[in-house]
Amino acid sequence: MKDNGIDYKPFFPAEKINRLVTNDRVAAVLWRKPSDSLVIFVSQHARKMFLALVCGGVCSVKDLECIMQSCQAHGMTDDKLPIQAMACMGQGNDPRKCSPKHGPWLNVFHDSRWNRLKYGFRRDQCVLNAPVFSDRDFRYELTAECVLPFIWKAPDERDGHFSIPCREPLRVALKKMKPLNEWGYNVGSAWEHEVLALTEIRELRHKHLIRPLAAIKHGLEYYIMFEWAEGGSLRDVWKSKDKTDRYLTPERVMCVLEQLLGLAGALAALHNTNTRTSTGLATRAPSLQPASASSRTTTRRHLDTESEVHWRHGDLKPDNILHFKDHSSQRWLGTLKIADLGLAKQHFDKTSRRDEGTKQRYTTSQYEAPEAITNLESPRSRRYDIWSMGCIILEFVIVLLYGPDGLTAFYRERELDQASTDTLYFTLNTHNGPAHVSHIAKHWMEQILRNSECRRPEGSAISDLISLVRDRLLIVPLPADNMTEDQKKICRADASELQRELERMRGLALKRGDSYLLGEPERQHRSIPFPCSVQEPETRKEGQRYLKAPGPQAPWRELPFDKAWNYPVDNDFAAEFLRDTLYNTNVFPLVRLDVVLCENCAQASNWTSTSWIMRFEGEEPLNCRLHDLTLRACGLKPLANETTNLKVQRIGSNLYINGYSSPVLCLFKSPSLSAFYATPENAFSDIQTGFPDLQQVRDSMYFKLLSDWLRDCNAKHPQCNHGNSLKTPNSSARRLLPTRLIDVSQRPRSSRKEIDSVRLVVTARLPDHELHTDPRYIALSHPWGIRSQNNHFCTTRQNLTGRIEDGILVATLPATLQDAVTVTRELGIRYLWIDTICIIQGPDGDFDTEARLMESVFSLAYCVIAASRASGTSSGFLSPRRSRDFIALKTSNNSSSTTLYITTPLDDFQSDVIDGPLNKRGWVLQERALARRTIYFAASQTYFECGAGVRCETLTKMTNNQASFLGDPAFPTVALRSSKGAKIRLYELLYKTYSALHFTKIWDRPIAIAGLEQRLVWAFNTHGGYGVFDGQFFGRSLLWKRDEKAEENEVMKAIEFPVGDRRYYHVPTWSWMAYEGVIDFMDVPFDGVEWQHSEEEGVLSPWGRMAEQKKEEEVPHGDVVWHTGKANERTVLSAVGRALAVPLEEAETKIVYDGGRDLRRGQVSEVRVVVVGRQKTGNQHATNVGVLQHYVLVVGQRQDNGTAYRRLGVARLPGSWIDQKGPGRKISVV
Predict the structure, then answer these.
(1) Measured between alpha carbons, how far is 152 from 387 in angstroms, rounded to an integer?
(2) 969: closest CA among 715, 723, 691?
(3) Sign of dihedral through CA atoms 65, 66, 72, 78?
(4) E strand or H helix that includes residue 98
(5) Which pLDDT tens digit goes with each residue over 687-700?
(6) For the residues 1089-1112, what does the mean pLDDT come to?
(7) How far apart are CA 916 and CA 11, in angstroms?
């Protein structure tokens, strides 16, 4: 006996029944010696009847034989099972009791013996009567009591994979039709529609169309059974990380050609393109898609006998093309088959045009053709599928050439793109305007055709595939009846043409062999093309936000840091957090019954669709709550006397309006138990469980969330725990602690708040027993604010002793510091670090010493809390937040009901934190980068950032590659794992960002990033300081410049450091830290410059001698022997200065002065250039150096010192503009 894999009911497999019930066993069980005819009857025709009575255990041997004899006499055989309840069962042979009348075989059950047998028999007959599926039959209608013969279910229920018992268990895919919460939808009718489609498509018997095996009605449940694809989908093939997949071989290209040809043949069979119509349109399109509740059923008997039948798939994508592995060969690719055929649309052609609009609503937007948006009310033709095939072929070629990473780069183009791209493949100028193939798709096709594989005069398979996609498949115009034949030739191809072209390519491959398939020996994937958003400087659009493009040698993926955020659904954390607060109705409001939605929005609000159209009719009053919320979220106002269509796209929990790069609305679901898990019955597994509105600050649930963030991070992210000896208190822990901490463990001894106090402690004096309690501490990142408006509450030499011995009354702390104490206590941490209290301020303080320890203070903190919403020490950060607007709707699927909330977006870490006021403060960049995890208290909500991403108070999770760089818990791990080019872009981004930040004391500019600089120096295994690195980065990091595009940055003003203050030091003019203003870096091509770092030419690093000294003294790597904050370090650049060969006024057209052109006059007596790098050339002796570009520092001789020069700016000059005769003058740049 087996257990069913769906509802775990037991059943006997049919083949085991046949082996169990034999002549010998029947004869042995029956009373006395039965006749041979009875034994043969039972073993051949009534096995299940026999076993049902035997297994019941209440039928005597004598009664068993009598009943089986009655079955033989009345013709009651197994094929009459199952028997439904009968009023006359066990009521004797009186025919008047039989209602309704039944067949003579059922007279068996009139016997009074059935009074005690009938209940067990009804149960056991179902165990024995599991259906047997065969190729002869397709449709099965079974009672609810019948047990389906599926013995195993895949662990991932979303796979829908089951096994059927047979000699070798057969794996199948079982699709269950789910009831949708949609007006007018009926799951039974939808199943009938799909069965009608699959019954006829099944007859095509095409190798590359997935074969439906059975359509099953099981009581009130509906299923479709398909053959199982062991290899997953085509997308799974593309994602393969097998090491052999890195190589492009002729065999691989041939496999792809053959499979594409097979898919084209399958489409041609579906489309039946040998019809009389040339446009591929039909007169009708009755929907066979389950979600199209409003469409009318059309059956074969309603058709004109002269009509020709064809199909359109309507949702072709890599996920709907399945991979069937070929175990009989070693081929890389088995057989690809088109699946999800139940979505297909049936067309009945009688003329060449169709008047009804398409009713198929649920498709995948990335692969949909432009007419899905441009012609909403017009019918869709079979050529809709051809556009989708063009997208699939292009992506297949990208995978062949560049591997899975190449496809990821292609998909990310839409995130990087600033244009209004409706999909990755086409764009619209207006909602109802003409469509165009997207510049992204064009760019990638152009880049591929420039590949060496595609530039051979005799052609190649790759170039022919891309040309086919470009010239015949990704074509917007469709043929029409009023077109001439020549006009139709430039329209999108049909399936027949696609099949012919691929057949031609296959013929060329068989004829020309490897020279056509792959012109070069097998090799690894090619370099991924630059994204179309990364342009050369002269073609970059005004205001473009991306970093400059390097030379062609650098992979593009090392370059852009974008602000596009991803929102992965993470309901596991939500389930754990909400387990004890599941029914908190204050947090999850009840559904209002008076919420009004229009009919279209009511149908779309089942949220199973990925896109729909929201229509606004002029300025008519809005009778739809969702329309109203959308307009207010977008800030739009419909135009009078015009119809406005907005395309709404749902990606996970976010709703996007075409043209908007950020979510316009968000979806959350209530925390019902079934909603936490992705089960077949749960239609909302891709929607985040979360809060429609925020909790009250200071509530217990609010602080529980903060604690659970840290608990979850502790358990799952070992990289975010500093992993040092603070966990095990000892002498090392004492050395790692900050000099001073605030002990917040002292609690009020009565209800009087006045006696609540904290104490400043010197960690070197802490007794061992206090260290053993818990040495962890919280660090506060906050703005001080304007002194006249904020109490900075500084520790000085005068009040230090009192704060240590007597403590500090919490009531005397300014609001921001009070809130920090509250949060630290609620998190269960004893110690708190605040700079204003833990560092002695003032001229006689220890700021200069403590500032150099910031690297360890923030990196070793258990957690950093950032007062992002505070304007100063007196403003506080635990203040109430504003409520947001939302709609609550009750939805349901098979087993449970869930409340869905539609809300205005609140999760905006970019604006609230990264671009927020606190992060504009100079010290905070270092604090954020060095912290292993941070809780941000912003004005709109609270966020948690660690190495795994950002968590929001709404329970949303966010990730972003630029944020992950500074959110790296072991900064700069990203740099350590990166190539040289990526390291350069990382530090350039970091320094450029830092240079735009603000300081209360501008002379803190060099020291406020010294901790980060130490980390980078260590990561790069070099020396450095003042924003410049030694070694391979020296020349490039010297070539910083004033950002000419930055607002209010016409000049960079030299910082006036306090004179005579021992805390401050001389900053050299060659460092951007000596100036106030935003910087950028010169656009120097990678591997295209010869750096000049010798005594005869160029510039020498001030760390040259130090590197030798470190080597001789065997100083371990990572020990910093040079630090920006050390005033006695050597900061002089030794260089060779050369005069200009052209008038200074002419050179100034290419010079970017740090302080502006006018400010150089009166400060210097002579202007020279120092050649830092020179453009590379293949043969230096054969090239005129005068035409090569030179990257130079522009320096001026100081009037008070004839040998010393100061930096004035940078330039890129032709060699002919520089006097290169003679050795030049040796100078010092100070």
Answers:
(1) 39
(2) 723
(3) negative
(4) none
(5) 888 888 888 888 88
(6) 74
(7) 64
